[in-house]
Amino acid sequence: MKYLMHKGYNIPLIGFGTWNIGDYKNKEKDEINTMVYGIKNHDMTLIDTAEMYGDGRSERLVSSVIKEFDRDKLFIVGKILPTNAKDGLYIESCKRSLENLGIKYFDLYLLHWNIGLDLNDMVKNMEKLKSVGLIKEWGVSNFDVSDMEELFRCKDGDKCFLNQVLYNMCARGIEYDLIPWCKAHNVAVMAYSPLCNSKADRECVTNNKAIKDIALRNDRSECSLMLSFVIRNSDVITVVKTSSITHLDSNIKNVFNPLNDGSLEEINRIYPAPSKKVPLKTI
Ligand SMILES: NC(=O)c1ccc[n+]([C@@H]2O[C@H](COP(=O)([O-])OP(=O)(O)OC[C@H]3O[C@@H](n4cnc5c(N)ncnc54)[C@H](OP(=O)(O)O)[C@@H]3O)[C@@H](O)[C@H]2O)c1
To answer: What are phi and psi of 119, to 5 degrees?
Structure first.
């Protein structure tokens, strides 16, 4: 595993996404086994959860995964729904998620997305969660540059630890302004859906003949190449969902090895970097 050092924390560059996990009884065994395997064999100690995922089912499934590990060795991210981001409900939501997960604190707690909330209140409530020890750090998700600017105008807004946003080979808009903005303001970036989320979108990439050639030349699978691309500068963390040990192994194999000369230029020709502002994509 490779790590990003941010504000005193060593965070794995690749962690587990858990959206849709725990939704089907017949998949639970594979979901648990894959995560346990990834933590043990690939040091994937970063786990991204949210109260929204399966209305708590995903958090409860993760509790079965993490119970056999030393809590302090894990970096667990939670997300509060914007509809619960109201005075009073913060503590309730956070405690409910922690109970589902069977843990006492979140390493990082994010506002899942913004629906025109008063960000001053959000910061105040997040800082309160920190002060009572329910979370160590707080951050945001799906915030574009203008949202980040608004956040930083709030008292203590600059204590935001991280922004979790959509980023993959086919959705590169954040390279133009959001990544540079976050770097300049010491906010880490976490990429979600690094494999494009949907099978159809992912296969547009993985079935592309030129991408297949680049992956082959770099001795890794097409999915591993997609992950290598996202973490290529070791400045973006990513979370990927898989419930298959075979997929996991192929995603991780050689993923941290630098890409051969010319590979990035070829990828840029197929999926160009943004040359102007692109509004942040979300799913
Ligand atoms: N903050 C937000 O608003 C937000 C939004 C979306 C996602 N997220 C977070 O980001 C995480 C990751 O994003 P995501 O789940 O949307 O999508 P993703 O990680 O880009 O893709 C997940 C899909 O890829 C498949 N997959 C994984 N490895 C594969 C391989 N080697 N070959 C073929 N298929 C493979 C998985 O199926 P298998 O299980 O069969 O491998 C799964 O269907 C989420 O789980 C969630 O934690 C956050």
So the answer is: -70, -25
> Does the C-beta of 21 come closer than 6 Å to ligand 1?
no
Within-domain flag for 281? no
CATH number, domain containing residue 31: 3.20.20.100
Beta-carbon contacts of residue 33 (< 8 Å; ≥ 6 apart): 245
- In-domain check, residue 135: yes
pTM of the model: 0.98
Q: Is 51 in the pocket of ligand 1 (CB under 6 A)?
A: no
Token digits of residue 95: 């405690």
Distance, CA of 216 to CA of 213 (rounded, Å): 5
Q: Is residue 219 part of a domain?
A: yes
pLDDT digits (tens, 9 = 90+) for 9-58: 999 999 999 999 999 999 999 999 999 999 999 999 999 999 999 999 99
For the Cβ of 33 lying below 6 angstroms from any atom of ligand 1, the answer is no
Q: Which domain holds residue 202?
A: 3-270
223 CA closest ligand 1 atom index:
31
Is the CB of residue 48 below 6 angstroms from any atom belonging to ligand 1? yes
Q: How far is the CA of 156 from the centre of ligand 1 (A)?
A: 32
- How many other CB atoms are there within 10 angstroms of residue 163's CB atom? 27
Domains: count for the chain: 1
pLDDT, averaged per 10 consecutive residues of the chain (283 residues), comes to 98 98 95 98 98 97 97 98 91 98 98 96 97 98 98 98 98 98 98 98 98 98 98 98 98 98 98 98 96
